[in-house]
Design a protein that fits this description.
Length: 449
């Protein structure tokens, strides 16, 4: 068994000053490991243990940890004496916006923010400002950040959700205290892949916007069924709501234009973060010129306030430019490489799964993947909650961490491959995964639940 005495010391110290000892409570998991450095595909903890990393800090590290080109770009702006001025524009932010508009064909303008939550917040505000309506639709099992509109209905227990509702909506189930009751009345959670429920909500309420990850990637990898995203597009036209794709996880990871371009469906607004700056705090909102105009609307009463002391700070902006330049060079070579690594992992794992008892389903989109312990690829959160073997998933993750392969120790969290992973890393991962999933090991796990 690996032990983590130094990690324990650091956590104990931090608990004196930070409630819970950790700066973001969604990072509080067991085993309690304090990481001290990350290089390429590897992270190391305070006790000297090394891991091949598939958590990637909840997915931003698409190039790998401490990518040399990104580090070089960051060092360069600091050496050049670039600072945060808080007045007027900069060449850097213009360069990043230009790159983004070139990468995502349907966006006619972008605004730059620090986090995905800020971006989804602003997108919903624009939807409300543009439609003059207040209600929004979110996906049960989707995650769009921590603010009042969207801090709800994520991995809601089946006991709370009750039987599948379709067509219909689930009650607002907050994932945070402190959300006003009045606010909850404006948010409607429906099953992913269920356009009838979207229509049901639209008939009952004046809906300003629908926000959806085009692939649900906070509960593993839940693909849209064929035609689903297009149906959302059609419904948005029919009922006049703003279609927002939350590409914070899918954007730049699956294609330069995000999953929207792969699916061939154009939202009105899309939000980005994570892979955009390879681990630096950068997010963006982009969309049609007509909607983006709300940030500079000539009528002040219709203008959406976009202000942020740190927006387009030169350090994350330089990191984002270097990341996008790397992703966009050589005609998509980065994405072909990610696909090669992803398919190698998939092929090896599928072979192994033939000998693993119990139901398993591996789902992958390029460099993002999830192994479910159920007999089919899930269509929505209700499906996962009803059919996935959470205990087996948790045990697998614990044992992989013991074996030096870091999967976030929370069931159905997506794994992420980076450009820094090598074939040898994938093969080693498969070897360790095989030991954990081997029939003998599986029986031992089953007994220990
Ligand atoms: C799809 C999606 N949207 C929004 C967010 C919120 O982003 P942030 O944590 O940067 O505020 C996340 C974070 O995990 C996410 O996965």
């Amino acid at each position: 068994m690996r032990s983590y005495p130094r990690s324990a010391q650091i956590l104990t110290h931090n608990k004196r000053y930070i409630p819970g000892g950790i700066a973001s409570v969604n990072r509080a998991v067991e085993p309690e490991i304090v990481f001290t450095n990350g290089r390429g595909a590897y992270i190391e903890d305070a006790d000297g243990n090394s891991y091949i990393d598939y958590h990637a800090a909840f997915a931003p590290h698409l190039l790998g940890h401490n990518d040399p080109r990104v580090n070089e770009a960051v060092t360069r702006v600091l050496k050049d004496g670039a600072s945060l001025y808080g007045s007027g524009t900069t060449e850097l932010e213009g360069r990043l916006a230009e790159l983004m508009c070139a990468a995502v064909p349907f966006i006619e303008g972008v605004q730059l923010l620090n986090t995905g939550s800020e971006a989804t917040y602003q997108a919903i505000r624009v939807a409300r400002a543009a439609t003059g309506r207040d209600h929004i639709i979110v996906m049960q099992g989707g995650y769009n950040g921590w603010h009042n509109d969207v801090a709800c209905n994520l991995m809601t227990p089946l006991e709370t959700l009750g039987p599948r509702v379709s067509p219909g909506e689930y009650p607002y189930v907050p994932i945070s205290a402190g959300i006003p009751e009045a606010h909850k009345q404006l948010v409607h959670a429906v099953n992913f892949n269920d356009p009838d429920s979207v229509e049901y909500v639209c008939r009952k309420y004046p809906v300003a916007g629908l926000i959806a990850e085009p692939i649900l990637q906070n509960i593993g990898i839940v693909h849209p069924s064929p035609g689903y995203l297009q149906k959302l597009r059609d419904l948005s036209r029919e009922y006049g709501f703003v279609l927002i794709f939350d590409e914070v996880k899918t954007g730049f990871r699956h294609a330069p234009g995000g999953y929207s371009t792969l699916a061939g469906v154009t939202p009105d607004l899309a939000v980005y973060g994570k892979a955009l700056a390879n681990g630096y705090p950068m997010a963006a909102i982009g969309g049609s010129a007509e909607l983006m105009r709300y940030f500079v609307h000539p009528d002040a009463s219709r203008r959406v306030l976009l202000a942020g002391t740190y927006n387009a700070h030169p350090v994350p902006t330089a990191a984002a430019i270097a990341t996008l330049e790397r992703l966009l060079e050589n005609d998509g070579e980065a994405y072909r490489r990610l696909e090669t690594l992803g398919s190698r992992l998939e092929a090896g794992l599928r072979k192994m799964l033939e000998n693993v008892p119990g139901s398993t389903t591996f789902v992958r989109q390029g460099s993002a993947f999830c192994l479910y312990f159920m007999d089919h690829a899930p269509v929505d959160w209700h499906d996962i909650a009803a059919n996935h073997d959470f205990a087996r998933d948790a045990a697998m993750r614990r044992e992989l961490i013991e074996a030096g392969v870091y999967f976030f120790p929370l069931a159905v969290k997506q794994g992420s491959i980076s450009l820094a992973h090598t074939e040898a890393d994938i093969d080693h991962t498969l070897e360790m995964w095989g030991r954990v999933l081997a029939p003998e090991a599986a029986q031992v796990q089953a007994r220990s639940y």
